[in-house]
Specification:
Strand content: under 5%
Number of helices: 3
Number of strands: 0
Helix content: over 70%
Structural class: mainly alpha
């Protein structure tokens, strides 16, 4: 695999872990709500929001994993456009995760 900088590798691993944690948290809260209150008029909006948060995180995780795989297959060096895509994806996720975490906790 063409080598990513240690900073990008660390950021990539960290962001993947954050996305997995966000999915886990949203699904855990969703389960607690369903077990405690069921699906009804009072809970349906919150349950839908939690499902959306988990789905967005899953999509981002999938995108990062696909980019990571593409980078692993590139030799001998990483093309600038592929590296730019990875950096943009990481920046996008870094900017969105705190908001999604806060939204998940509010629900």
């Amino acid at each position: 695999m063409a080598k990513l900088s240690p900073e990008i590798r660390a950021t990539l691993s960290y962001q993947k872990e954050q996305l997995l944690a966000l999915i886990d948290e949203a699904k855990s809260i969703e389960f607690i709500i369903l077990e405690g209150f069921g699906e009804n008029e009072r809970t349906i909006s919150t349950l839908e929001q939690l499902t959306e948060i988990a789905e967005q995180a899953r999509t981002r995780l999938s995108q990062l994993s696909t980019l990571h795989l593409r980078l692993a297959e590139v030799q001998p060096t990483i093309p600038a456009d592929l590296l730019r895509l990875m950096n943009e994806a990481l920046t996008n996720i870094q900017n969105r995760i705190p908001a999604k975490e806060a939204q998940s906790r509010r629900n």
